[in-house]
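FW: tagging you since you asked about this chain on Friday. Here's the raw sequence from the shared folder, copied in full. Didn't touch anything.
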Amino acid sequence: MAEELNELLKVRREKLDELKAKGINPFPYRYEKTHTAAEILKQYEKLGEGEESKETVSLAGRIMTKRGHGRASFATLQDETGRIQIYSKQDVIGQDKYDVYRRLDIGDIIGVKGHIFKTKTKEITIRVADFEILCKSLHPLPEKWHGLQDKELRYRERYVDLMVNPGVKEVFVKRSKIISLIRKYLEAKGFLEVDTPILNVLQGGAAAKPFETYHDALDMPLFMRIAPELYLKRLVVGGFEKVFEIGRVFRNEGISYKHNPEFSIIEIYQAYVDYNDIMKLTEDIIVA
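HL: got it, structure written out here
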């Protein structure tokens, strides 16, 4: 298995050298896009079979599938919003470019320009008029059907998981929206968001084992915070009546895909209320 992987890596590096020898930059800095995959699919969903758009679109994405038929070939590109099919033909992009296109690998990122049409199977497709290599992938993606199945590996190599399991992106999107909603709700209720120190002189705020570090300039040991509680309470003592923090905490404990020693936490403190008020606030946040 290791020998097979090493051979694949070797072949990809050889292809990288081929591109450089032809004067093609395999890692250009920028590419001008006009659409995302989702925008194209939505905009042209009513395009009739055999019709072709007058508008030229430009899209960037990672090659996820590729199948050739002599002088023409189909591929699937994936960007942040989804997947879309592209169709390349030697007669259109030219012999030299098509030769480069045929040497592309699964995982390579390319930019394509062309018109939209609908295939006989009614799949919205970009007819490629030109393409540009944006990033040559030097490592193969996990095998399509039996690839990234190990949960521990998926959580350790999240970026690979995102590439081969697009549905995982929804977790990130929903998390961002939830945090944004909580933040806006609390601000609307008059709470002030603050940032408290991550490096602490004392370990406190929760019954957990901290990570330890050392500050050379101050010549003293410090602890990574296990909770922001103590500093938030000091702010209340100082005169702020409603404060909250959404931030990272660190606990030197067991690790699994269900338990991370580094995680996000929200802590809320309000003066002149009791646990009933905080319970109501928590319920309102969840309902919101």
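FW: The chain has nine helices and eleven strands.
HL: agreed, and The domain at 189-287 is CATH 3.30.930.10 (BirA Bifunctional Protein; domain 2).
FW: great, closing this out.
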